[in-house]
Amino acid sequence: MSQTLQLPLDVPAIQQLLPHRYPFLLIDRVLELEPHKRVLAIKGVSCNEPFFNGHFPGNPVMPGVLVIEALAQAGGLLTQVSHGGVAAGRSFYLVKVDNARFSRMVVPGDRLELEVDLKRMIRNMALFRGVARVDGCEVASADIMCAEAKD
Predict the structure, then answer these.
(1) Cα dihedral angle (130, 46, 54, 77), rounded to 10 degrees?
(2) pLDDT tens per residue across span 121-142
(3) Contact between residue 116 and residue 71 where contact means Cβ atoms under 8 Å apart
(4) Residue 40 and residue 135: Cα distance in Å, rounded?
């Protein structure tokens, strides 16, 4: 991106940095961003999310793997912004998840806060530590590694 980013970032700005689209874009807003360090993003969990139709009828719960995916997408935003948007057009994929912990269910109406810290960059890979919270209480955490795809 050639322009300076103005926080908070909204969905159109996020879509300029990430390839994800509905129904798989899991970031609604970026509140804080320190290039090469950390990002704080949010996902408003609506009762209209398509995964709630089957997970679970009458007792909707956001799948834990999607909470981890949301953390990985926040990490992807951090990577893109840290490289001045020059990574646009390059594909990065989730390659490893370690130490995943789930401590509370995420349900419709929750505001999922996604805080991701960059631990280190190794060539074409990034290692992140992500923590997801609702109302300030941790609901999930994981160490996430993403790598650039080789064409």
Answers:
(1) -30
(2) 988 899 999 999 999 999 999 9
(3) yes
(4) 14
